């Protein structure tokens, strides 16, 4: 009997038994794991839109509709977040999307919207928004962002237009960061192939006389020596404001001097 227990056949039987028991145990665990993953406990029940700005260009319901998360039918483990993200990025206002699963039954969505820096007039006359990267998106809603400067005269050629738009945006940002922003505001920035860039600028006249409005000629290279040009213009506008003078045109593209044409009524 002792010899039988130590025989090679018994060792093989023992190994096979261990393997079979291991397989059965793994199958049991796998079936249990599968049942857990597909349990109604983890079915998506809630879609949550987080950190929405107060003046959001797209409301929470529109975001939820755009995401189109299959509620009450899909297990949270099976949900394809990449497809939802791709779908949401088709919206012109959506720049980035962060989607996460919050167990046991919630999908959380955070949206980063594009930040419009200007309006741009297309060749057909339509107005659209443009962000800091020069991305043109969405038709303008006059109830939203009404004070943005308007870019006009931009080339129909895509590559040329991109360069012009980026140059214009950089100029607008520099204007806002300079001391010029304290005394004046750009309403529109236009480009002409012969005269270059021109800005329609408003400034307070003081003494209850309302606002002055003047066309400032900037030339072709608006990004060249901006600091010195801005300093000269700041002094000009300060003088116009202090004296209540309405200027018709200002030429700031003549090197170190600035020429001002006064409106007749001033």
Kindly describe this structure.
This protein is of the alpha/beta class. The chain has 2 domains: 42-113, Roll (Ubiquitin-like (UB roll)); 116-262, Rossmann fold (3-Layer(aba) Sandwich), CATH 3.40.50.11690. It has 7 helices and 12 strands. It has helices at 2-5, 8-37, 60-67, 81-88, 158-177, 180-183, 226-242, and strands spanning 46-50, 94-102, 106-113, 116-121, 127-131, 136-139, 150-152, 185-192, 196-204, 211-219, 247-254, 257-262. The strands form 2 sheets. The protein has a 9-stranded mixed beta sheet with strand order 6-5-4-7-8-9-10-11-12. Strands 1-3-2 form a 3-stranded mixed beta sheet, covered by helices on one side. Strand 2 (94-102) and strand 3 (106-113) form a beta hairpin.
Name the features.
alpha/beta, Ubiquitin-like (UB roll), Rossmann fold, nine-stranded mixed sheet, elongated
Write a short abstract of this structure.
The protein has 266 residues and is of the alpha/beta class.
Strand content: 25-35%
CATH architecture group name of the largest domain: 3-Layer(aba) Sandwich
Helical content class: 25-40%
Overall CATH class of the largest domain:
Alpha Beta
Dominant shape: elongated
Write the layout of secondary structure elements.
Blueprint: H1 2-5, H2 8-37, E1 46-50, H3 60-67, H4 81-88, E2 94-102, E3 106-113, E4 116-121, E5 127-131, E6 136-139, E7 150-152, H5 158-177, H6 180-183, E8 185-192, E9 196-204, E10 211-219, H7 226-242, E11 247-254, E12 257-262
Parallel strand pairs: 1-3, 4-7, 7-8, 10-11
Antiparallel strand pairs: 2-3, 4-5, 5-6, 8-9, 9-10, 11-12
């Amino acid at each position: 009997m002792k010899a039988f227990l130590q025989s090679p056949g018994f060792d093989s039987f023992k190994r096979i038994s261990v393997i079979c028991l291991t397989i059965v145990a793994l199958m049991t665990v796998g079936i249990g794991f599968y049942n857990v993953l597909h349990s109604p406990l983890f079915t998506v029940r809630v879609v949550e839109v987080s950190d929405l700005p107060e003046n959001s260009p797209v409301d929470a319901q529109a975001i939820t509709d755009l995401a189109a998360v299959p509620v009450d039918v899909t297990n949270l483990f099976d949900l394809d977040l990449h497809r939802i993200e791709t779908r949401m990025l088709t919206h012109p206002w959506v720049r980035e999307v962060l989607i996460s699963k919050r167990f046991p039954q919630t999908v959380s969505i955070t949206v980063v919207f594009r930040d419009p820096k200007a309006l741009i007039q297309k060749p057909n006359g339509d107005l659209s928004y443009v962000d800091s990267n020069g991305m043109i998106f969405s038709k303008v809603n006059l109830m939203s962002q009404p004070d943005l400067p308007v870019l006009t005269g931009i080339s129909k050629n895509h590559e040329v237009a991109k360069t012009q738009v980026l140059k214009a945006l950089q100029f607008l940002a520099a204007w806002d960061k300079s001391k010029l922003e304290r005394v004046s505001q750009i309403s529109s920035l236009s480009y002409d192939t012969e005269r270059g860039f021109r800005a329609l600028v408003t400034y307070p006249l003081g003494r209850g006389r309302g606002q002055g409005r003047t066309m400032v000629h900037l030339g072709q290279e608006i990004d060249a020596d901006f600091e010195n040009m801005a300093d000269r213009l700041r002094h000009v506008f300060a003088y116009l404001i202090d004296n209540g003078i309405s200027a018709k045109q200002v030429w700031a593209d003549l090197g170190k001097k600035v020429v001002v044409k006064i409106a007749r009524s001033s």
